[in-house]
Design goal:
Layout: E1 3-8, E2 21-26, H1 30-40, E3 47-51, E4 54-59, H2 62-82, E5 87-88, E6 94-96, E7 101-103, E8 107-110, H3 114-117, E9 132-136, H4 145-151, E10 156-161, E11 164-171, E12 174-178, H5 192-202, H6 204-220
Length: 221
């Protein structure tokens, strides 16, 4: 029997934003989850996560989406300055049927393994997972995303929460909080939230240009 929990997740008191809507279904079979994916398609305003019978449907709000977009732009500016390729795949559905787990990150990137998946339709049974996934989290989590991403063997996980960016690296079977990025060890992680906050006053593209200038300073030094 499927149980349904519908609620609005709480938000930090300093953030005057409308709450995200999360619907949690329990007792959902993998076959039902896959049928739902097939029926709703990719052109939708909500994201899904599935963990061994528990399905979460999350409808993000504006304050959730903006940091995600900016972090994606920062990574793109960074690799342009480095002269390397990435494959930016947004909220790609990452799934492993044998693990009965699936998740749609806020955004994800192939960096070290870009060449292995260039131009391919991703199938995690044969292809590596993204090198980096990003989640923006203003609210309480209904599912343990760490557990899902670890089971999928995603090597690096960034979580933006309450104007701070946390970097986790997969060590063995679990994630460990780290001071630097695995993909970009020279990147000043602690400075990224400042650029996100500046965008509220100077605009998104201006914030990206400032970030690019900062990266050039670091590379040239």
């Amino acid at each position: 029997m499927t149980n349904v929990q519908v609620g609005r997740a709480s938000t930090p008191p300093q953030e005057q934003v409308p709450p995200e809507v999360r619907v949690v279904l329990t007792g959902v079979s993998w076959q039902t989850f896959k049928a739902l994916l097939a029926d709703v398609g990719e052109d939708r305003a909500y994201r899904l996560a599935y963990n061994q019978g528990k399905l979460e449907i999350m409808v993000p709000y504006e304050q959730h989406e903006e940091p995600k977009v900016l972090i994606g732009s920062f990574v793109e500016a960074l690799v342009d300055e480095l002269g390397i390729e990435i494959r930016h795949l947004g909220s790609l559905t990452l799934e492993r049927e044998e693990l009965t787990r699936a998740v749609e990150p806020d955004t994800c990137f192939y960096i070290q393994n870009e060449r292995l998946v260039r131009g391919k339709e991703i199938n995690l049974r044969n292809d590596p997972p993204p090198d980096l996934v990003v989640e923006v989290d203003y609210t309480n989590r209904s599912l343990d995303k760490f557990e899902i991403y670890a089971s999928l063997r995603v090597p690096e996980f960034w979580r933006y929460e309450k104007q701070r960016l946390y970097v986790y690296q997969l060590v063995g079977e679990k994630y460990e909080l780290c001071a630097e990025s695995l993909a970009f060890p020279f990147l000043p992680i602690s400075e990224i939230p400042g650029f996100i906050e500046q965008s509220k006053n100077i605009g998104q593209r201006a914030a990206v240009r400032l970030f690019r200038e900062r990266i050039r300073e670091i590379l040239h030094s």
